[in-house]
Amino acid sequence: MNIGLGTLDFRSGLAAAVGIAACLLAPAFLEAREIGRIEGRVVDSAGQPISGVTATLEDADGRTSAAALSDAAGAYAFEPVASGTYTVRLQLGERLATETGVEVTEGVSRRETEVAWQVHFAETITVQAPSLRSQRMVEAPVAVTFLGTQEIARQAVHNQLPRLLAGTAGAEVVQSDICDFSLNSRGYNTDTSRRVLTLIDGRDPSLPGIGSEDWSALSFPLDDLESVELVRGPGSALYGAGAFNGVLDLTTRPPRTSQGFELRLSGGELATGQADLRWAGAVGSGTFLKLIAGYREGDDFTVSRVGEGEYAGLPNEVVSPPEDGYSIASGSLRVDRTFGGDTRLLTLEAGTSRSTGTVTIAGTGRSQIDDNQRPWARAQLDAGRWQALAFLTAQDSDDILALGTGLPLYLDTWRAGVDLSARFGFAGGRGSAVAGASWREENLDSADPQGVQGIFTKARSGDRSAAFGQVDVDLGKRIEGTVSVRVDQSSLYATKVSPRAGLVFAPSPRHTVRLSYGEAFQSPSFVELFLETAVAPPIDLGPLEEALAPLLGGIPLGFSNIPVLAVGNADLEVERVRGFELGYRGLFGRGLFLDATVYANRLDNFTTSLLPQLGTPLGRLNPAYGPYQPPAGLSPEAVTVVLATLQAVLPPEFLATLSNRADGSPVFVPVSITNHGAADTAGLELGLTYAWSRRWTLDLSATYFDFDVDASAFAGSLLPNTPQRRASASVTYVGDRFDATTKVRWVDDFDWASGFFVGPVPAYDVVDLAVNVPLGDHWRLGVDVSNLLDDVHYETFGGSLLERRALAHVTYGW
Prior knowledge:
Blueprint: H1 9-32, E1 36-43, E2 54-58, E3 64-69, E4 75-81, E5 84-92, E6 95-104, E7 107-114, E8 126-127, E9 135-136, E10 144-148, H2 149-153, E11 171-175, E12 181-185, E13 196-200, E14 225-232, H3 236-239, E15 246-252, E16 260-268, E17 272-284, E18 287-299, E19 325-339, E20 344-356, E21 358-362, E22 365-373, E23 376-383, E24 386-402, E25 408-426, E26 431-445, E27 460-476, E28 479-490, E29 496-508, E30 511-522, H4 526-530, E31 532-539, H5 542-552, E32 562-567, E33 575-588, E34 592-607, E35 611-612, H6 618-621, H7 636-649, H8 652-655, E36 658-660, E37 666-672, E38 675-690, E39 696-709, E40 725-734, E41 739-747, E42 750-754, E43 757-761, E44 764-775, E45 779-786, E46 805-813
Parallel strand pairs: 1-7, 13-15, 32-37
Antiparallel strand pairs: 1-4, 2-3, 2-5, 5-6, 8-9, 10-14, 11-12, 14-15, 16-17, 16-46, 17-18, 18-19, 19-20, 20-22, 20-23, 21-22, 22-24, 23-24, 24-25, 25-26, 26-27, 27-28, 28-29, 29-30, 30-33, 31-32, 33-34, 34-38, 35-37, 36-37, 38-39, 39-40, 40-41, 41-44, 42-43, 44-45, 45-46
């Protein structure tokens, strides 16, 4: 199906209906608002906001009734508040400040508190993703990596989001080409990694039915991001399927707090040209608008593999990539409307991207997409303690050329979702809770214009729903406990229950030790369950059938043009992970922050990538495809002759893959998927940040990973696709005249196995450089160089050889 906007009638209708419902419900929320609200803001002596400050509300009798945390703007709020006189106490570590005599009547009472505190840079970092509530990062119950607005903006020119996390502790970022990345954590990466759930403002942007990310489809420049949070470890207790090894939570900048205009033009090596435009502003009382548009084009690292590849061991391809480069156009529009004295926010947003010539890699081989459209929409109502979100993510890919077969493929998919959640406090601010529910539906169709399926046997659909809750309680003596649980059910799998529990102990306000246990699950994707796609040209055994004709009695064998397929496995079970994590975070002086994590995971029913037959009977890998059986109508003598002839004519590795479809016709199945019994992983993640002055910052990270796979017929092919050791160091200078960041990443050698791509990845070192120079109030110049020393290497076996790419940019903004 081609996506002109008319084909999105159902999807856009769903988003519009939710948006209209939110508008209609907003007045009801306003009418339900109780009595009053306190809004506060904490700033330093220079007027700069201080985040991460704990604000507690005390009534006239000295009883604490609520607690809140200041956000990136230094703001906090209490609601509902009965009329009366209150005291607000502010605390950050051992620092205290008090606002007395805060009068509350119907409406909003506003306060701004100026404090003369000397603050450690890491004390004020607040995160949302680990517990679905704002909390200081040093107090989060699980491992989390945080990147803020300024750090993101310094690296925004390259427009390759996974690179933001490359070199951070625990993050596994590998690049296959300019637009093709895999992001994972804690092992078992693949070309189409989907073990880390990505969310953009709560919306799941992954490819419906596949689950992996199309990083080229992001419809915003990177400096539109307000924050990036990577939560590492099992996360299904709050997020469900997909949060197997973690959650990547991306929050974009709201138009109200980021008003202005910016135009950036950039270009450089590989014939790269880019243009990004962003405008945000007020368009009426309480209404704010954000408009984004972008365009990118250039060459990539892809070369033809017809004949010989770039390095030894690569499978040969049938056709060369027809496009010499890629182009990506994107845009989005967001409208925010505040209600009820700015206490309610309704967001309506939609966008799309369209790309041509991008090359992707999967276990079945490389593909180039000539036309890939990714429309999306979301509607969200934030009513303080209550939130409602509806979203749509779609994909329409025409003319996907499989380079290994030369066959065109098509894919038309969409995902719709609704999330509801509520947050509230109890026990006089000593406890907080969040509860919610979610629903998802996905539809996939791989039919070509003539209605012939090329990836599945028929159109597929499925749905899932869930309910979850989490409670955080101050247990006294500087110990906080957290317990969460989620129940998921789906048309694809049986009901799953995912628990998580943790303790955070703070021997002092600047040091915390945490211990947590969590479980997660990963449902097989539609591709893993129902894949049936050609991975090589058909094999013609027609002459063999003609030679056997006198024995067949007119019964056809179907040996002409026998398809060669990669197939899914409808008998796959849901994979599970159970993990323990022990971590420490410490602040030293005013500039040193240390974060250390040790973890151990147990994986059960592990779903493999596409595996070759390895000389074992095909039925052991996929019960639906056993050894080939001649047609049932043949005589026993004919059956014996047919099998003996095949054994004599076909090489053993070909004969081992010959099987039957459900209708009895012959088919070659060289690769399929199965469940493996179990695997154990363990690792160490270290991160250190030292800001030795206001201008200079040093970041160091190191990660160690180990694994053990239970013995089985397939254990030798179950590789984690993860190096045992990797490390990174970066230095950042932020001055009045320029800022610069130099990052060095070292990755140990490791083995890679994903479908047809099996081989070693040699160790590599990468040096990146980013420099930005402001020129007055409106202009900025800069450069971004990836792989500065031009260390030609590959990061996945099957990926392209990566070389240097240097970009320069000029930015105008106000």
